[in-house]
Design a protein that fits this description.
single chain, alpha+beta, Immunoglobulin-like, 6-stranded antiparallel β-sheet, 3-stranded antiparallel β-sheet, 2 helices, 9 strands, 22% helix, binds 2-acetamido-2-deoxy-beta-D-glucopyranose, NDR1-like, transmembrane helix, membrane
Length: 204
């Protein structure tokens, strides 16, 4: 005869995982997978579209007028042609927050702005800026600079600024970045000719 074994249950030490913890773990896993898939989608989209960064270039300019008076006041008028290019064959580019400052020897002469505009795939848009500034007061040092510039028949302005470019990339939303422009615009004051030099936001 065998005695029936008596099963004795001790105190239950094993901790059960709370269902909420499981739930949180599953949510986290799902989010992590979603992030990875989104990353792959963006990367593949980038490789397919193979974006070329839109850029801006000063294509031409002309010094229409530059006159200084003995009182140290300068009147000037400059035409600047800025080209916004979108070499991309698969995405439109939208440019916004355009803001350039034209200065002479550190003295701000004019601010050039543009409303947001769109550049179609594989095309470009030219902007003609007419900068007119009258009675810009010059310090004696700047007056000397102007005299030297006129004698050498070469005057240098600075054009500096930013604009924001944005692509519409189908379902992936949009890609934004800043274009920076910082260059010298040189002219012959005698006839207003622009002395060509590279001026582009494209990384060198
Ligand atoms: C882009 O434009 C250039 C010249 O404007 C042209 O030669 C080229 O075929 C165009 N590319 C596409 C894909 O439209
Ligand atoms: C303007 O003047 C400069 C120097 O004086 C000269 O080199 C240039 O050819 C002139 N340009 C025109 C269009 O006359």
């Amino acid at each position: 005869m065998t005695n029936p074994k008596k099963l004795i249950h001790g105190p239950h030490h094993q901790r059960t995982t709370h269902p909420l913890v499981w739930f949180a773990a599953i949510i986290c896993t799902v989010i992590a997978i979603a992030v990875i898939i989104a990353g792959i989608a963006v990367f593949v989209g980038y490789m397919i579209i193979h974006p070329r960064v839109p850029f801006i270039t000063v294509t031409s300019a002309h010094l229409d007028n530059f006159q200084n008076s003995v009182a140290g006041l300068v009147d000037t008028e400059i035409t600047i042609v800025v080209r916004a290019e979108n070499d991309n064959t698969k995405a439109h580019a939208v440019y916004s927050d355009t803001s350039f400052i034209l200065s002479f020897q550190g003295l701000n002469i004019a601010k050039l702005v543009a409303y947001p505009f769109e550049v179609k795939k594989n095309s470009s848009v030219d902007f003609h800026y007419l900068v007119q500034s009258s009675s810009i007061p010059l310090s004696p040092e700047l007056m000397d600079q102007v005299d030297i510039s006129l004698k050498r028949d070469k005057i240098i302005f600075n054009l500096k600024g930013n604009l924001r470019a944005r692509w519409r990339v189908g379902l992936l939303g949009s890609v934004k970045f800043w274009c920076h422009l910082n260059c010298q615009l040189k002219f012959h004051p005698s006839n207003g000719t622009y002395i060509r030099s590279p001026c582009s936001s494209r990384a060198k």
